[in-house]
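$ run holo --ligand "thiamine diphosphate" --emit tokens
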Amino acid sequence: MSNMSGSKALLEGLWNEGARVVFGLPGGAIMPVYDAFLDSEIRHILARHEQSAAHMADGYARASGKPGICMATSGPGATNLVTGIATAFADSSPVIAITGQVATPTIGKDAFQECDTVGIVTPITKYAFQPMQSQEIPAIVKKAFKIASTGRPGPVLIDLPRDVQINVANMSFPKKVDIRGYNPHITPHPVQTKKAADLLMNSNKPMIWSGGGIIISNAAPQLREIAELLMAPVVTSLIGKGGFPENHPLSLGPIGMHGRPEANKAICEADCILAVGVRFSDRSTGRFDEFAKDAHIIHIDIDPAELGKNKKVELPIVADVGIALKSLIASLKRKIVKRDKTLWSKRLQEIKSQIREGDFGSSNELYQPKIVQKMRELLPSNGILTTEVGKNQMWGELYYQAIEPRTWITSTGLGTMGFGFPAAIGAKVAKPEVPVVDLAGDGSFRMTENSLSTCIEEDIPVTVVILNNSTLGMVEQWQRLFYNGRYSGVKLGNTPDFVKLVEAYGAQGLRAQSIKEFEKAFKEAINSEVTTVIDCPVAPEEDVFPFVAPGRGLNEVIFNSEDKN
Amino acid sequence: MIERTFILSTIVENKPGVLFRVANMFRRRGFNIDSISVGAIEETGLSRMTITIFGNENVAEQTVKQMSKLVDIIKIQVLDYEDAVRRELALIKIQVTSNKSLSELTNYCSIFRNRVIDVSPGSMIVEVTGTPEKIDAFLDIVSGYGIKEMARTGITALQRGTKK
Ligand SMILES: Cc1ncc(C[n+]2csc(CCOP(=O)(O)OP(=O)(O)O)c2C)c(N)n1
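-- output --
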């Protein structure tokens, strides 16, 4: 027990939980905490917009597996965080947001910069706290970490009235906190795992579909073990990329709207699907009623509400996927009546060989898929790639082979443009020793480009590759395909000159006009001590294919615009 | 799939914002609350929310799962509709236009074991306690007289017997 202010207790609490960095931007209602930063060893990284602070915290969390912290003042500071919090919520990322609030006696009086932050974020957080007394802070910080990082992770917000930050109280920091209504179930029911083992053993064409849960649960080794044990091919969701090495012979890549065609084809033929840490998103499954119609489906997830939410499955298992896979592996090993999978392996080979897609010859033209493949070639396997949203992201999905967990970071659930760049900064703070690259579109980059100041002033060097097509490309593609080329609100024009723009920030700006120039620029960028942006002027009419049109089944892959009907 | 009424009996933390979180979850998922009643239980700091919803098994299952995810919900139980003790209270203001209708209504009330709480010129207020079905049955009978106003509390319920 010791006497201290609420602000000091907050920072001590964060420190005790392992937090070493906070991304934020101050204002009146959070000034007492900012004052306390001066006496704390926690590093504060100044964002230029609170949305970016939240994405940085999110990128930090996804790269490290530890909660990322962001901070903002009341009112507009808090509302600016909202997009970032919603992005983290949609992708189950442990972000802890701390906001200032007007003093307790003024709450409800519509004071200056008062807004109902807890009310606004309730649907997009796992929980939101508002301590009314300073001495509640230590336990609340501990609870926030517990809720954010356990079970199915997700954002938690702490809304701190100004007087609660200032008041001094006798603080005690609990070693453990008990939250009566919060007890995630993590061990699988043994009967269910046995049933799962039986289904898998008796299948001729088993397949594993793995998602973000595998990465969150650090279960990549178990996933690999079970895949090799069953000789089952592995497909992933978009967020699941990296959970299984995409250069492994059993890897077929991501399924879904812009998934790999071989993955989409193969999953339609599987007779038993082990779905681990996925949530049956419509972007992954295509039409729900067409998805894996004839397969037995085993679905393992830590969130019971995901089981049966979008699709009724034969065998739901509530558990941490890592723990569940371990016990599943143990039951499988006890059986060892190996089915003959040679027909299935042959068929998979056949599917793979029918799909030529992905070989782009030796032309020097600046072609988007080729740029992405080049990036993979030049980045080490632990290098981190973030993406923006749009065609850039889909080219990344199709052509960037993620090899290690936590090296592919992208906004999947919310699809937030402007996420990739600040997320890259957060990831770089978490992993300073590896190169971090944002694969961007020109439209998305403009949304959070002012984070360049953070890179420069805080000395956080990252690389940005802009596939610059002077349009909001993905929307333009849909207008081309589904609105007869009636283009509306998608032309961005040729401004700004990105090289000049980033130079104005003090960053390095390079332009690549060919694959050779790109290769040279990219090598320079990822080894540079200063943030480097590579502007790649590319053809706007180059669309992303293969593609499964919305509302269609995964078996209806189209390879070019003529295919669409 | 068959649609019916489900009674969710939940124990929740008694603190600000809990009802908001529950109501918000229903709105967000597009579920509908038919009735809700909240009150104290035997343990201080906790309340019981009895919520009835109408829908099929899938909707009920999702509702329960999404409710369970709310940190302030300590326990949730779907009561067996037939086997639960279900009670609701209704106050009904009925139009009374003549002495004849007054005596008829008083008669119905005694058959239903209802209490007449107030008689004023032109109307009377009746208190009905019982299962929602009983209240509905009484309403059917008296609706011809003209119902001026009504207030129903929504169901509160407990599971019979030893099951807790
Ligand atoms: C914040 C936000 N606003 C709008 C959208 C809708 N949207 C999806 S993709 C896209 C175009 C992205 O353009 P750009 O970043 O240039 O990438 P490109 O598709 O050209 O690679 C838009 C506007 C979105 N996902 N996020």
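-- notes --
The interface with chain B takes residues 118-119, 122-123, 126-127, 147, 179-182, 303-305, 307-309, 312 of chain A (CB under 8 Å).
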